[in-house]
Amino acid sequence: MIDLMPRLDETSGEALYMQLYRYIRDEIAAGRIPANVRLPSIRTLSAYLGVSRSPVALAYEQLLAEGYVNSRPRSGLYAAELDTSASLEVQTEAAAERSAVSPSPKRAYHASQDEPFRYDFGYGSVDIASFPLAKWRRLMNRCLLPENSRLLLYGDLQGEPELRAEIAAYLHHMRGVRCQPEQIVVGAGTYHSLDLLFQLLREDVACIASEEAVNDGVKALFGQFRFDCRPLRLESDGICLEELQASGAQAVYVTPSHQFPYGMTLSAGKRLKLLQWAKERRAYIVENDYDGEFRYSGRPIPSLQSLDDDGRVIYVGTFSRALTPAFRLSYLVLPPALLARFRSRRHSYDQLASPIFQMTQQLFMQSGDFGRHVRKMRSVYHKKRDALLHAVRDAFPAGVEMIGADSGLHLLLRVRGDKNEAELVRAAAREGVGVYPASAYRLRPESDEAPTVLLGFGGLSETDIREGVRHLARACMENGIFSK
């Protein structure tokens, strides 16, 4: 395995994953990464660069799709052997790009080690130990019987009909979503679903408003589709509606049940006003309900889509948090107008979600095992959330604040002091603790908030959560980030 030293520029208009993709592509094409050399794992490289795993995963997926790397089962990604003429062509293209763009400075937020953190509070991990592997394997074996050989083909462009029926029933029961199976489009992960959605929207939408902090993959998609993106200030009960009214946007992106990453919930009053805005402007609301199953206090919050009587809300969901991101199963619920557009023309994708995984998920839901698994995981994550809250209260002084702890698989830790986020992240890394700056998710860089880091807890045991927080507090005290 080799070390990679890309120069990533957060201030560039180009998405981080595209910068990383171009760097690795050029290194392979130039022979600086020799053929058959293993690339660092997604986890290792994201920790080393101080970025989330999403840009690394997207860059690797692009390299794999274009044949610059090969995947070896249970081993990783390896640089491919390239045709000499192809390598020369890419080097020439890369040289032209370098002459047009000035060199980028190094990222400020990079880990101090290239090995995985002992305590990684990165967002996106789930409790793999609790996954019902035996049940899933048994159901998948049914999918591989000769009578199901059709699953070895591409599958339905919109997703397998039987799975869409199960999703529609599940969403109505769990999230109040009102839809028919025919409105659902199955995707291969949230970014794939959003990419498809933005293709459908781009002839209607020149300007999209958005919460001022979003997942980095969503940020990359905004740039890829070149929307005029208007960030909306976040208040204690969600987006600032006055800024939305003044934005001139034809669509808005929100995470109303659990804002990512700040964790607030869009209030009932703002929900109704947001729907009224969409109705009057004939605008669309993109509702990303990425972890709506996991709420730990108060009553479950129905989806925004459940209140929509005018076909203005597009609902986006995923099975990645409830199951595992490895299966790459997500879904869109399209309003009638966008569904008609989807069906009336060919878009740039075949169905990328595996028909085998789709049928396995369908059987898992049909048997009732999925519902039982979600209830079990809600309890598991509730205990982990509590362990994290107690650990922070025990290890840190009163000068820290925990934000967004009522639901989901992460919270934010805000530390009041003279240091900045970069110093906090680096100090934690030296103690073997991976924490991630909240500012990286902001659409506009300026912010006067105290250093704030994201702590994801889904993939850590309760013991590791407590130990990780203890090491984090020690790093903060030893580096003067706060003092008891």
TrEMBL record:
Keywords: Aminotransferase, DNA-binding, Pyridoxal phosphate, Transcription, Transcription regulation, Transferase. Its cofactor is pyridoxal 5'-phosphate. Pfam families: Aminotran_1_2 (PF00155), GntR (PF00392). It comes from the Bacteria. Coiled coil: none annotated. Residues 14-82 form the HTH gntR-type domain. The keyword Protein transport does not apply. One of its GO terms (molecular function) is transaminase activity. In the C-terminal section; belongs to the class-I pyridoxal-phosphate-dependent aminotransferase family. PANTHER family: HTH-TYPE TRANSCRIPTIONAL REGULATORY PROTEIN GABR (PTHR46577). This is GntR family transcriptional regulator. The lineage of its organism: Bacteria, Bacillati, Bacillota, Bacilli, Bacillales.
